[in-house]
Write a structure and sequence with these properties.
The chain is of the alpha+beta class. The chain folds into two domains: 36 residues, no CATH class; 135 residues, Nucleoside Triphosphate Pyrophosphohydrolase, CATH 3.90.79. Helix content is 20%, strand content 44%. The protein contains three helices and ten strands. The longest helix has 16 residues.
Length: 186
């Protein structure tokens, strides 16, 4: 058991939404003091770095309301209740980018905001792509942007792509493509 572990005393849901719920918990710190913890409960999602045979990556440009700007991102979406991340990745790739993957490589998962949110985002690399046509959800507006993988990676490294899942996805894909899935970090 971790010496930093906080013991949950009470969980109280204060908001139930379409994308996430919010709880306010009471917890006991390791030194015995009681604190309040605000928790965003999110069902998780999947994101996809889609790479074609010419080494182009499929990105989507869409409006992000909280930042009041368009962002360039890898296709992604939230898991439906009971859906596994692999199926979600294939579904979102088809819906948003209009392609199907002949091969899907699991690049792992990460916690986007572990200080206050339960979201787990899974990242995949899609290869052997076939055009299928977009099937956007109702109320979803985005454009597909296809560009050389190296250019997208450069935009992420230069901070011109600010979306975390896209930065992490492109970097993990670069590592996997150049070092292989069993590579050791030197």
């Amino acid at each position: 058991m971790s010496k930093f572990r906080e013991k949950t005393l009470e969980k109280k849901q204060i908001y139930e939404g379409r994308v996430f719920d919010v709880r306010v918990d009471r917890a006991l710190l390791p030194d015995g003091r009681e604190v309040s913890r605000e928790v965003v409960v999110h069902g998780g999602g999947a994101s996809v770095v889609a790479l074609d045979g010419e080494n182009n990556v499929y990105l989507v440009r869409q409006w992000r309301y909280p930042f009041e700007t368009e962002m360039l991102e890898i296709p992604a979406g939230k898991l439906n209740r009971g859906e596994d991340p692999h199926s979600c990745a294939l579904r979102e790739l088809s819906e948003e980018a209009g392609v199907a993957a002949g091969r899907l490589v699991d690049l792992g998962a990460y916690y986007p905001t572990p200080a206050y949110c339960t979201e787990v985002l899974n990242i995949y690399l899609a290869l052997d792509l076939t055009e299928t046509g977009q099937k956007l959800d109702d109320g979803e507006f985005l454009d597909v942007v296809k560009m050389p993988f190296e250019q997208a990676l450069g935009l992420a490294l230069d901070g011109k792509i600010c979306d975390a899942k896209t930065q992490i996805g492109l970097l993990k894909a670069f590592f996997w493509l150049n070092e292989g899935k069993n590579a050791k970090i030197r």
